[in-house]
Amino acid sequence: MNLKKRAGSIAKLSKTFMLMDTDRSGKLDADEFEACLQKAGLFLSRNEAQALLKHFDLDGDKKVSCAEFLMQLREELNPRRLAMVGRCFESLDRNGSGVIDSTDLKGIYCAKEHPDVIAGKKTESQVLGEFLNNFEGTAGNRDGQVSVTEFQIYYEELSMGIPNDDYFIEMLSST
């Protein structure tokens, strides 16, 4: 069974995951997990669903968070994609420190035109921090600094929903 192909894109899978979290705990219990699998087109026996839940339950609480689920689904980037992700990281890591932080993004990403900054809801620094945190993937620590590993994990997760290498490369090139 190729779960990634059956479940569809990561965005769709994440949305389905959130919809199936009926108690809004941020995690799926056994019944919610089974319903999520069915919604994604995977009709397993109760025992198979429970075994799969156990596989994805990284912290042993008999529930699965979306992050736990996605961490188990992602796979390493192929050499072509990995090379492109490496080039992107290097272009953003302007000072060559091996970490992307707000200093690296100054002059590349301007937060002053962000709607929340204009409305006075957030500072430019807050928006910049949130922007950086997006590149940490589900395993990131949200510290405002993106390591090479966090950046790569983000693109491994994104890559799961993009089956065509040329499209993946073009998407990264254009941004």
Q: Which features characterize this protein?
A:
175 residues; 11 helices; Recoverin, domain 1; globular; two-stranded antiparallel ribbon; two-stranded antiparallel sheet; disordered N terminus; mainly alpha; 2 domains
Kindly describe this structure.
This protein has 2 domains: 3-73, Recoverin, domain 1 (Orthogonal Bundle), CATH 1.10.238; 79-174, EF-hand (Recoverin, domain 1), CATH 1.10.238.10. Helices cover 57% and strands 5% of the residues. The chain has helices at 3-7, 10-20, 30-39, 46-56, 66-73, 79-92, 102-105, 115-118, 124-134, 148-159, 165-174, and strands at residues 27-28, 64-65, 99-100, 146-147. The longest helix is centred in the middle third of the chain and has 14 residues, at 79-92. The strands form 2 sheets. Strands 1-2 form a two-stranded antiparallel sheet. It contains 11 helices and 4 strands, in the order ααβααβααβαααβαα. The chain is globular and about 55 Å long. Mean pLDDT is 85; it is low at 1-8. With 175 residues, the protein is mainly α. The relative contact order is 0.12.
